[in-house]
Amino acid sequence: MTGINTPELEDSWDLVLEPRRKWYSLRLGEIYRYKDLLLLFVRRDIVSVYKQTVLGPIWFFIQPVLTSLTFAVIFGVVAGIATDGIPNFLFYLSGITIWNYFADTLVKTSDTFVVNAAIFGKVYFPRLIVPISIAISNLVKFFLQFVLLLGVMFFYSISGTDISLSFYYLLIPFLIILMGIIGLGFGIIISSLTTKYRDLKFLVNFGVQLLMYCSPIVFPLSIVTNSFPKMKLILLLNPVTSLIEAFRFILLGVGVFDWIYLSISVGFTVVLVFLSVLIFNRVERSFIDTV
């Protein structure tokens, strides 16, 4: 008897499907159960980017080198911005290396749910696997660029440049993880919102470029501290500022390393993850209908 829904029939049901997850649930156990799928997405992200290119992974090295050379000429030679006694090229390369990982993760995850709507509508799997796979696959690019950075550091070191590697070098993986999580968190929030507000995706690239110039990539934080002390607090409101400065301090011996600033970044990351999961869980239930 189609269309009849009575209490008697409801009482006779053997199985009732109800949502089990809470709005604040990270569902890490579910993501772990789909770890094979996660690895497949990671492999897809790595292979697809340069599969039909002539130079392949060499582009991983070309981009930071050309960008660092451009910054060295414009900001180092023309503008004359000091780099705390570090050669201009090395200073900019160190900032770009860690920045690229954050920026790539944010940009590529910001339209994840719109781009993959066709897949999401056909089969179920934890949706967070897709942006997480992007963050993990970007680690391959970061690792290659980090090796390039170490090679340039070695070249300048044997050329007579004083480079002081800090004993805090064990914190580098921690800094990279934080950068990835911050990029992932912002990307998930933007991706969730773009299912309803499509024009947000046009602001992502511009916003990331603007954020780079508000971060100590083309200038050291020491210049702001000495010349514009009131601006220091504003720059430190940028959650990646302390991470970039700590990264430079550990590798090159210049920059600001402060446990208080790092603790603030950690606290911001925790809040960001909580907020991104909250927004995602609310949007996930109906985003297929809006994309």
**Number of separate helices:** 15
Indicate the low-confidence ranges by residue numbers.
1-6, 15-19
Strand content range: under 5%
What share of residues is helical?
55-70%
Major β-sheet profile:
none
Find the count of extended strands (DSSP E, 2+ residues): 0
What string gives the helices and strands in order? HHHHHHHHHHHHHHH
* Span between termini: 35 Å
Which descriptor suits the 3D outline?
Answer: globular
Provide mean pLDDT, rounded: 82
Structural class: mainly alpha
For the CA atoms, what is the radius of gyration? 23 Å
Briefly say what this structure is:
This protein is mainly α.
Structural account:
With 291 residues, this protein is mainly alpha-helical. The protein is 69% helix and 0% strand. It contains 15 helices and no strands. Helix 5 (88-109) packs antiparallel against helix 8 and helix 9 (172-194) runs parallel beside helix 14. The longest helix is centred in the middle third of the chain and has 30 residues, at 129-158. The radius of gyration is 23 Å and the shape is globular.
Protein topology:
Elements: H1 7-11, H2 28-33, H3 35-50, H4 59-78, H5 88-109, H6 112-115, H7 117-120, H8 129-158, H9 172-194, H10 201-213, H11 221-227, H12 229-236, H13 241-252, H14 259-284, H15 287-290
Helix pairs in contact: 3-8, 4-5, 5-8, 5-9, 5-10, 5-13, 8-9, 9-13, 9-14, 11-12
